[in-house]
Design a protein that fits this description.
single chain, Nucleotidyltransferase, domain 5, 2 domains, five-stranded mixed β-sheet, 17% strand, binds 5'-O-[(R)-(carboxyoxy)(hydroxy)phosphoryl]adenosine, binds zinc ion
């Protein structure tokens, strides 16, 4: 079983990804994005995303196979994101994965998208230490997790966001600042020429009486919007606003993550998800981890945003841990909580019969 080549398929949002992993090593991967088709709407349009997946899923898998120098018949297992994500988008990836698993007669695994973000790091930096502290920061999630054996153990949530996710805050504020979609990379780019101390944005939930590991970004978003409104009729110093917002987000995220490592006596912090691509989040995490004697792991930029390799990486861990494959009538779970890396929601019809 160790030598199975695992195909991973990701289609939870606007990226169609396919990746091939064996024994913790990335053999090849490809990503197609429908981001440009959503740009004029200022956010992902679910129906457009689902249709784009239909067009891209087959060529993306072929491209990943070509890159790895493999053919479909080399695949020994299929892993697919079954949640969380957009309903129609997830359905397309799952249908493709089921078709391939059924045709090849190989096991199928449902994977939690966020566990994929974490496993992406193993493709670059090797197996995760047990335990490790994980800061997941994406467009839909912001969580601080204590992770033991990713393939076997439940994932402990030390804290989550009470409202907006960090990426959502970047995306929404970027819109108010007149920056293009997606907002995170645009804020990052604009911040390069700005002063991070120009605007004293708040640091939400960092007071002595606040929940130590919970996050909140909607107040920060509102503060940024109010600041922009105060410039009505004058030119908005966008770079200063972007740099100050980015500094506030990076400060809160890294401060809480390092404190959690210290309190729980955990020597490794892994920062993953789309926002882990942010240059200030990366540099401040580096600075603070170094000062605290904590080892920092962040996946390379190309594996930070959604891709299929990260889903294949989870599938590979599950195969090697001897995890039970999913039934072919597995369903999707668009709002799946992150409890285990494997996510095998059972189709409603089956649940009704067996209930
Ligand atoms: O993980 P991801 O690709 O998709 C989700 O699962 O949500 O994360 C997308 C989020 C978006 O909010 C995007 O604006 C943000 O990650 N992002 C960034 C950067 N690159 C992507 N945020 C800040 N700085 C970046 N360089
Ligand atoms: Zn993601």
């Amino acid at each position: 079983m160790d030598s199975s080549i695992v195909l991973g398929i990701e289609s939870s949002c606007d990226e169609t990804g396919a990746g091939l992993v064996r024994g913790g090593r990335l053999l090849g991967h490809a990503v197609a994005s429908s981001m440009d088709e959503h740009a004029r709407f200022g956010g992902v349009v679910p129906e457009i995303a689902a249709r784009a997946h239909v067009h891209s899923v087959r060529p993306v898998i072929q491209q990943a196979l070509d890159e790895a120098g493999l053919t479909l018949s080399d695949i020994g297992a299929v892993a697919v994101t079954t949640g969380p994500g957009l309903t129609g988008a997830l359905q397309v990836g799952l249908a493709g994965a089921k078709g391939i698993a059924y045709a090849l007669g190989v096991p199928l695994y449902g994977v939690h998208h966020l566990a994929g973000h974490l496993a992406a790091d193993t493709l670059e930096h090797g197996p995760l230490p047990n335990p490790c502290m994980v800061l997941i920061v994406s467009g839909g999630h912001t969580s601080l997790l204590l992770v033991r054996d990713l393939a076997r153990d439940p994932i402990a949530h030390l804290g989550d966001t009470l409202d907006d996710a960090a990426g959502e805050c970047f995306d929404k504020v970027a819109r108010v600042f007149g920056l293009p979609y997606p907002g995170g990379p645009a804020i990052d780019q604009s911040a390069r020429t700005g002063n991070p101390r120009a605007v004293p944005f708040p640091r939400p939930l960092t007071g002595p009486r606040d929940e130590a590991y919970a996050f909140s970004f909607s107040g920060l978003k509102t503060a940024a919007a109010r600041w922009a409104e105060r410039h009505a009729g004058r030119e908005l110093p966008v770079a200063d606003g972007a740099a100050s917002l980015q500094e506030a987000v990076a400060d809160v995220l890294t401060r809480k993550a390092v404190t959690a490592c210290e309190e729980y006596g955990v020597g490794t912090l892994v920062v993953v998800g789309g926002v882990a691509a942010n240059s200030r989040v990366r540099s401040l995490a580096e600075e603070r981890c170094q000062a605290a004697g904590i080892q920092l792991r962040v996946p390379p930029l190309r594996l930070c945003t959604d891709n299929g390799a990260m889903i294949a990486a989870v599938g590979d861990l599950l195969v090697r841990a001897g995890a039970e494959p999913a039934p072919l009538d597995m369903s999707i779970d668009p709002s799946a909580p992150l409890e285990y890396a494997a996510l095998h929601p059972i189709a409603a019809a089956t649940r009704a019969v067996t209930a």
